[in-house]
Amino acid sequence: MKTLLVLGASGKVGRLLRSIWSAHPPTGLRVLYQFRDAVPNDTGCLRFAPGDPVETLGPIDTVLSLWGATSGSDAALAVNSDLALEAMRIARAAGADRVLHSSSIAVYAPSDRPLSENDLIAAPNAYGVAKSMMETVVRSDADPRSCALRIGSVAGAESLAASVDTYLAAKNKTPLNLHRFSSGSGPVRSYIAPSDLAQIIETLALRPLGEIPDSLNIGSARPVTMDALLTATDIPFDWKPAPDGAREYAVLNTDRLHELVALPATDSDPARIVRDWLTWRAQA
C-alpha cells in the first residue's frame, strides 16, 4: 500500500477528490489530506502548514500539490513557486519519489489548435506566468521527480461551475449569459470530469517512476463547448456576442495522457461530464 499526500485539500479540486476517494477508496493507495486550519473529522485529514516538521506526516510515496494562488498581484501569485518548492521539501523529507504539481493550460501561448506538451510556453496573463515560473523552479530540483499537470478545466471547479452554483442557489432564477463566437458556438475548452481526474492521479501515483513525464496535459480526448455542458444540465442561457479579445479555443492535445491512463471512451461526453460534476458537487 502506497501513501498519497494531497496538499491543498480544502480547495475546490481537493474537495472533489476527497469526496470521490471517500466513496471509492483507490486500490493500492492510502490518501492523506492536508489542511492549514479547520480539519474535517475524517480519516486521513490532518493539519499541516508550510514549514511545519515533515516528520509528523510519516512516510509518503507521492505528493499531489494543489495548493497555490489563482489570482491577485504578481507578488501574491509568486506564492505558487514558493509552495511548489515546499511540496518538494516535504516529498524529499518524507521519502516520496514523485510530486504531481497542479499547473495549467494558461502556461501556453494561445492557439486555435490543440496544444501539446512541446508547444511554446508563453503565458498571456499573470496567472499563466506564475504557473510557468513554478514549473521552472521545480525543475531545478532533480529529486524527487516533478510532473507538471497542465490542467484544462476541471468540471465543477472552474468559472462555469461557479455560475451554475449561483443559478442553482438563486430563488429567482434567470438564464445565464454565454459568449457566442462567429462559429456559432460558445467557448471551446478541454474539460476533465472529477472522477477521471481522480483516476489520472491514482495512475500517476502507481506507475513506475520512469514512466512519469516532466509535464502532462490533463483533459478529455476531445474538446467540449460550454453551451453543450449547459444544455446537458438543463440550465437556460442567453447568447451574448463574444467581445473582442475573448478566447474561443483553449484546447489541449491529450495524446500523452491517454497513452498513460485508460480513461473511459466517453470521457468527452458532455452529459457524462455533467453527471459526474453534479454528483460530486453535492458531496464536496
Characterize the structure shown.
A seven-stranded parallel beta sheet has the order 3-2-1-4-5-6-11, with helices on both faces. The chain has helices at 12-23, 74-77, 79-94, 126-139, 159-169, 194-206, 226-233, 255-260, 270-281; strands at residues 2-7, 29-35, 45-47, 62-65, 98-104, 145-151, 153-154, 176-180, 188-189, 191-192, 215-218, 224-225, 237-241, 249-250. Helix content is 34%, strand content 20%. It is built from nine helices and 14 strands. The model has no long low-confidence stretch (mean pLDDT 95). Helix 1 (12-23) crosses helix 6 (194-206), helix 3 (79-94) packs parallel to helix 4 (126-139) and helix 7 packs across helix 9 (270-281). The longest helix has 16 residues, at 79-94. It has 284 residues and is α/β, with parallel strands linked by helices. The protein has a single domain (2-154, 192-219, 253-271), classed as 3-Layer(aba) Sandwich (Rossmann fold), CATH 3.40.50. The relative contact order is 0.15.
Question: What's this entry about, in short?
Answer:
The chain is α/β, with parallel strands linked by helices and 284 residues long. It is built from nine helices and 14 strands. 40% of the residues are buried.
How do the strands line up in the largest sheet? 3-2-1-4-5-6-11
Number of helices: 9
CATH architecture: 3-Layer(aba) Sandwich
SSE order: EHEEEHHEHEEHEEEHEEHEEHH
What is the CA-based Rg, rounded? 19 Å
Number of strands: 14
